Amino acid sequence: MKRLVMKQRYLMSALFTGALAVVPVMAEEELVEEKNQWVSAVDLGLSLSKGNTDNLLLRFGLQTEKKDGPDAYFASASYKYGEEDAEATQDEILGKATWKHAYSGKNFLGLRMDARRDSFADIDYRFSAGVTYGYYWVDTETTTFTTELGLGITTEDKGLGNTTYLNGLFDQHFEHKINENAKFYQDLSFAPRLDHLDDYRIEFEMGLETKITETIVFKVSFEDRYESLPAVGKEKNDIKFITGLSYKF
């Protein structure tokens, strides 16, 4: 019962975070004359099987983004839960928010915040905040390619109590609009702990979005989260392959 209550509490936190991310969108919609609008999406992925094995996989996500002159904003929150034969196998919450301000051509400064809780990786919590310097190598209506270097601070608990440390950050983002109905994206980040360089994490994600209607999109994505020094008894790699639908507004 205690585990269920905690799970519900974290789920509500994720939904609340996502709702906060979408609030600016609701306000922006009232300014119909504004050229640069927020673009938001609600993602839902569900897989259910019954028979020789009983499996359940649920993914719920919210995200919003906007590019307004020299400024670019992005925020997202997601929750993943899985079961196999009535035993939980996944229980993860992720959150991310970024702001980039371009100056002097293609250079930009950025702020970034990340959050993660993963019961099965024994990450009770992890919060990171950092500042970055980046460059728009490509920035057109169809293609965006950026890289960033930065410095941040992380506080986390991987089952052995709280630890706070400085971390470096390298981030790379690529996005390409294949045509009016399809888009490919890919992200890579590397964050080493500066006082313990053999402790680092690498996060990789790529995906393909295809329009079904003007507002409904089919999404396929691949995620790999690597921890060089995971919690005791846990695997270094955490790989997920996800399919689902997204409602864009």
Characteristic terms for this protein:
flat, 12 strands, twelve-stranded antiparallel β-barrel, single chain, Porin, 11% helix, mainly beta, 249 residues
In words, what does this structure look like?
The relative contact order is 0.12. This protein has one domain (2-248): Beta Barrel (Porin). By secondary structure, it is mainly beta. The radius of gyration is 19 Å and the shape is flat. The chain is built from 1 helix and 12 strands. The protein has a 12-stranded antiparallel barrel.
Individual helix count: 1
The overall pLDDT, averaged over residues, is 84
Per the CATH scheme, the topology name is Porin
Radius of gyration using CA atoms only: 19 Å
Provide the structure class: mainly beta
Assigned CATH superfamily: monomeric porin ompg
How much of the polypeptide forms β-strand, as a percent range? Answer: over 45%
**Residue ranges: pLDDT <50 for 5 or more in a row?**
1-34
- Give the oligomer, counting copies of the same chain as homo and different chains as hetero: single chain
Using the coordinates above, name the CATH class: Mainly Beta
- Domain count: 1
> In percent, how helical is the residue content?
10-25%
Task: Kindly report how far apart the N and C termini lie.
Answer: 37 Å
Give the overall form.
flat
The SSE string, one letter per element, is HEEEEEEEEEEEE
How are the strands of the biggest sheet laid out side by side? 1-2-3-4-5-6-7-8-9-10-11-12
Largest sheet: 12 strands, antiparallel, barrel
